[in-house]
Automatic annotation (TrEMBL):
It comes from marine sediment metagenome. One of its GO terms (biological process) is DNA-templated DNA replication. GO terms for molecular function: DNA binding; DNA-directed DNA polymerase activity; nucleotide binding. This is DNA-directed DNA polymerase. Residues 43-199 form the DNA-directed DNA polymerase family B multifunctional domain. InterPro entries: DNA-dir_DNA_pol_B_multi_dom (IPR006134), DNA/RNA_pol_sf (IPR043502), DNA_pol_B_thumb (IPR042087), DNA_pol_type-B (IPR050240). Keywords: DNA-directed DNA polymerase, Nucleotidyltransferase, Transferase. The keyword Translocase does not apply. Transmembrane segments: none annotated. Its EC number is 2.7.7.7.
Amino acid sequence: LADKITDSTDIHMSWDGLFDTIVFLPSRAEPDIPALSHYWGIKNDGEIKVRGIEVRRRDIPKIVKDAQYAFIDVFQGAKTVEEFHKRIPEAKKVLYEYVARINSGKVTGDELTVRQRISRKPSEYKVNSYQAVAARQLERSGVVASAGKNVRYIILNAEADPNFPEKKVILSDFYDGKKHEYDRKKYVELLKRAFENIFPIKFPELEELLKPDFNTKLIQKDLTCFIE
């Protein structure tokens, strides 16, 4: 088939595999148009293939990547649109389980770590981004923090007082789970985004995840309504 298309169109095609499920996601620039570089799929042998989503990015924490793979894995064997939609409540349940784990405060430093590459000298940053704060901390620790250097950090308070930006993040090497408290809301936000980004549909009800009073009762109510 690939050869026939190549011969007919003069556009080279190659066989990648047979997919049970494939989802082409909306382009960020043109939301109504699916992007060929932004998709995920599950082959008939169970292999998961992804492009342009969180699991492919270096600056996404391990717990978010693990969660996104778990969301996708729910759709193993879903070969029709109807089967796909029936699995969504199960995928949401997986999301809620990860949210509960983050809110428990017991996620390990390795799972929370964000990895980024410094783009300039610490003194050249004009905005107190996570990257900038981490770069300054790295420099103070005695490491030459030049452009191109990798930095690893954990988010402590995404909404830290602008006068105390150093409270935003801490270098992973200095993080102590017994002394420091990671920003649960921010990590839940990253989880929520990773879930939403694998679907071409909206989930406005997930805004509840970011509310302080979000709890398991809300989870059960949401799942019951969705299934009904």
